[in-house]
Design goal:
By secondary structure, the chain is an alpha/beta fold. Helices cover 34% and strands 13% of the residues. The protein has one domain: Aldolase class I (TIM Barrel), CATH 3.20.20.70.
C-alpha cells in the first residue's frame, strides 16, 4: 500500500477514511481534495459525534467455538479509543460508514440499553449464561463518562443476579467497583484489563485515546483490592513491535493483583489490514516490512486467517514461541492456576411492576 501526503491527526488512530466495502462507488486519490478536506476538518477539531439510537435487541449471541462466551452486550457502536488494529472497525461498514476515521469519530449510543436488557431477561424462554462486555467496542470508552450506559446495564445485571465478564482498556471501570464488588461476592463479576504494551510512546500511537498502560495496571490493583476477580489481556501481540513486552506486562499485572491472563495475536480482517499497514508506514516505516513478514509467517502466508482455532493464536514457529513464552511466564507468576467460575445459579427475575412475585 503506497502512502502519500498523509496528514497526522493528533489523538486519532488513523488519518484516512477507508471505503465502506458495501459502497457502489469508491474514492480515488486526489491530493488537492485531500488537503482541502484536511483543512476543513481541522477547523472542527476532528470532533467526536455521538448519535442516540434505540436498540431493538441488546444481547448478541454467537456460537464461535474459540471464544469463552455465547452472549455479549455492546452499549456503543464505534470506539473513540482509536486503536489502529481494532478488529471491530469493519462493523461500521454495515452502517454505510467508513471503518477508518468514521469508526472512531461517529459513535452510536444505545440509550435504551438497560430498558431493553430488562425486557430480554424477563422473557420466560431466557436461560442465563455469562454476558460478556467489551468484546467488540469498549464499554468504558470516553463517552461512558457522561452517558453511563454501561453502569446502567450493570445495575440491571446486579438486580437479576446475572453474571458478567468485562474486558476494557479504561481505568473508568473502577468507577463501577461498588456494583462489581457486590456482584463479585455472589460470583457474578470478572474484569480483564487489556494492556498492549508498557511503552507509553508506543501506546499513544497504537491507542491514542485509551488510558496509559500504568493507569490500567493501577485499575487492576484497585479492583483486586476490592475482591473483584481481575485479569490481564495481552492483546494484540504484534510481532517485532510489542511482543518483547509479554513477560513484563504479566509481571506488572501479577504484582498488581491479577489472578488470570490471556493473549490474542494481531488480527487484520477486511479494512483493518490497510488501516494498519498505513499506520505502520507512518509511525514505523523502518519496521514495516519486517512486521508484515512475521504476520504472514503466523498466518500461513497471509495477513489474516479467519478460521476458528487459529485466528486468535496463529500458527508456525513464531506463534509457537509466543505461546511457550506466555505459558512459562504464567506458570512462574502463578497466573491461571485456578479461575473462579461465574455463577449462573442465582439468576432471579425481580418482582414485576404489580408486585406479583414469581412462583418458580
Amino acid at each position: 500500500m503506497k502512502i502519500q501526503h498523509i496528514h497526522l491527526i493528533k489523538g486519532r488512530g488513523t488519518s484516512t477514511n477507508a471505503n465502506c466495502r458495501f459502497d457502489e462507488w469508491s474514492r480515488s486519490p486526489d491530493d488537492e481534495r485531500h488537503a482541502a478536506d484536511f483543512v476543513h476538518e481541522s477547523l472542527s477539531e476532528w470532533k467526536t459525534e455521538t448519535t442516540d439510537v434505540s436498540a431493538k435487541t441488546i444481547i448478541t449471541r454467537n456460537q464461535s467455538p474459540d471464544v469463552p462466551f455465547d452472549q455479549s452486550i455492546n452499549p456503543y457502536r464505534g470506539c473513540e479509543h482509536g486503536c489502529s488494529y481494532c478488529f471491530a472497525r469493519p462493523t461500521h461498514a454495515y452502517l454505510g460508514l467508513s471503518p477508518g476515521l468514521d469508526f472512531e469519530r461517529k459513535l452510536f449510543a444505545k440509550t435504551n440499553a438497560a430498558e431493553q436488557l430488562r425486557r430480554e431477561l424477563d422473557k420466560p424462554s431466557y436461560k442465563p449464561s455469562v454476558i460478556a462486555m467489551g468484546t467488540n467496542t469498549d464499554p468504558y470508552q470516553p463517552i461512558e463518562h457522561d452517558r453511563k450506559l454501561t453502569r446502567e446495564i450493570l445495575q440491571v445485571l446486579e438486580a437479576y443476579g446475572h453474571p458478567v465478564a468485562i474486558t476494557t482498556k479504561s481505568a473508568l471501570v473502577v468507577r463501577d467497583s461498588d456494583i462489581l464488588a457486590r456482584m463479585a461476592t455472589r460470583g457474578l463479576a470478572r474484569v480483564f484489563l487489556s494492556v498492549t504494551t508498557l511503552d507509553a510512546e508506543l501506546a499513544r500511537k497504537l491507542e491514542p485515546r485509551a488510558n496509559a498502560p500504568r493507569r490500567r495496571l493501577d485499575a487492576i490493583r484497585k479492583l483486586a483490592e476490592q475482591g473483584i476477580p481481575t485479569g490481564v489481556l495481552v492483546a494484540p501481540i504484534i510481532p517485532a513491535l510489542n511482543d518483547s513486552d509479554i513477560e513484563r506486562i504479566l509481571e506488572e499485572a501479577s504484582g498488581a493483583g491479577a489472578e488470570a491472563a490471556g493473549y490474542v495475536m494481531l488480527r487484520l480482517p477486511l479494512e483493518v489490514r490497510d488501516i494498519f499497514i498505513e499506520w505502520l508506514a507512518i509511525h514505523y516505516p523502518d519496521r514495516q516490512k519486517h512486521v508484515l513478514s512475521l504476520i504472514e509467517q503466523i498466518r500461513e502466508g497471509n495477513l489474516y486467517q479467519s478460521g476458528f482455532g487459529t485466528r486468535m493464536r496463529g500458527t508456525g514457529l513464531f506463534a509457537e514461541l509466543v505461546q511457550k513464552r506466555f505459558s512459562l511466564a504464567c506458570r512462574r507468576l502463578a497466573l491461571n492456576t485456578s479461575r473462579r467460575q461465574l455463577n449462573v445459579n442465582v439468576f432471579r427475575r425481580p418482582c414485576d411492576t404489580t408486585g406479583q412475585m414469581q412462583l418458580f
